[in-house]
Specification:
- The structure is a single chain.
- The chain has about 130 residues and is of the alpha+beta class.
- Helix content is about 25%, strand content about 30%.
- It has one domain (about 20-120): Ribosomal protein S3 C-terminal domain.
- The chain has helices at about 1-10, 25-40, 45-55; strands spanning about 60-70, 80-85, 95-105, 110-120.
- The protein has a four-stranded antiparallel sheet with strand order 2-1-4-3, with helices on one face.
- The longest helix has 13 residues, at about 25-40.
- The model is unreliable at about 125-130 (pLDDT under 50).
- One of its GO terms (cellular component) is ribonucleoprotein complex.
- It comes from Turritis glabra (Tower mustard).
- This is ORF134 protein.
- One of its GO terms (biological process) is translation.
Length: about 130
């Protein structure tokens, strides 16, 4: 894989694998998981959110998930629904907040998913997070 990418882009490529303890500690995998479940029509929005709330680690202080688009089958108007669990402030700058958007293409059109995760803070004021960016 590394040689393929290096030859294709004419640059030196470094690939590292990262092991994540929990899928629900970063916003990007959550957004991708939600979009996959919505595309395959496995669950409703509320049941997806309830499952995520059960699985989030203790170091996560709060989570907010917004769905937008034609939520009900063949609805004429698009809607936006937001679900929130615990404390999630989008206006505080000293808190670590992870954000990830995702799109879902269904037969009724494109819907959007936005996920915000706020992490707990240590006593020194720095946020605790174990997210990995690739």
């Amino acid at each position: 894989m590394r040689s393929f990418l290096s030859n294709r882009t004419n640059t030196k490529t470094l690939i590292e694998s990262v092991k994540i303890k929990s899928v629900y500690q970063s916003a990007s995998p959550i957004a991708q998981d939600i979009s996959f479940q919505l595309k395959n029509k496995r669950r409703s929005f509320h049941s997806i959110f309830a499952k995520i709330v059960k699985e989030i680690p203790k170091r996560v202080e709060g989570i907010r998930i917004c769905f937008s688009g034609r939520l009900k089958d063949a609805a004429e108007k698009a809607q936006t629904k937001c679900y929130k669990h615990r404390k999630t402030s989008r206006n505080v700058f000293n808190q670590k907040i992870d954000y990830a958007p995702a799109e879902v293409s269904t037969r009724y059109g494109i819907s959007g998913v936005k996920v915000w995760i706020s992490y707990s803070q240590k006593k020194g004021g720095r946020a605790i997070s174990e997210t990995y960016e690739i």
